[in-house]
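Worked example (supplementary).
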Amino acid sequence: EPEVTQTPSHQVTQMGQEVILRCVPISNHLYFYWYRQILGQKVEFLVSFYNNEISEKSEIFDDQFSVERPDGSNFTLKIRSTKLEDSAMYFCASRAQGVGEQYFGPGTRLTVT
Amino acid sequence: SQQGEEDPQALSIQEGENATMNCSYKTSINNLQWYRQNSGRGLVHLILIRSNEREKHSGRLRVTLDTSKKSSSLLITASRAADTASYFCATDAGANNLFFGTGTRLTVIP
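After joint prediction of all chains, the assembly is encoded as:
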């Protein structure tokens, strides 16, 4: 069964460094999302992406964040200058046209020290 | 915020019993979805119920939706130890962005 994959599974970085989190959505899906989950808290929407542009973004998704679909398969989330509070599990999700279900990847645990 | 809130926060039952989790939300929705998350893992989609539906079944899962009360419930019948996980409701107001609740931690004791 097709699935969303994410790399790396765990990323440790120092405060102020740039990180890129990578996702490979399900191949025939057209809508892509990033969510994050701070330890012990709820899953929070960050950004949605369709037709090579951002559809919607939350207040969390400030100028430090950016997303890109550099080729036909990858979908990336970049954090330019990480802060301690960016430590969280980051989930990528994708969705097919015309359906509501989103399929989530296993997540990347980002630890900022 | 349209984020849902689940109750109870934690639920512990014996294998074979039924588990019921509730979710409340604040704004109008297009659909409501339930997801499961095993500890430290990703989210697995369980079931979606549209705003014009009142009840939906999938295997041992039964979901109800009351849009007048802005609430939903998830019933897992004949629970198994493998059902132990956190369960989240997520609302979609039409932009297809999901807003998750706080989750219910279900423990099924063998």
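Two points are worth noting when inspecting this output. Chain A has no helices and eleven strands. The first strand of chain A starts at residue 5 and ends at 7.
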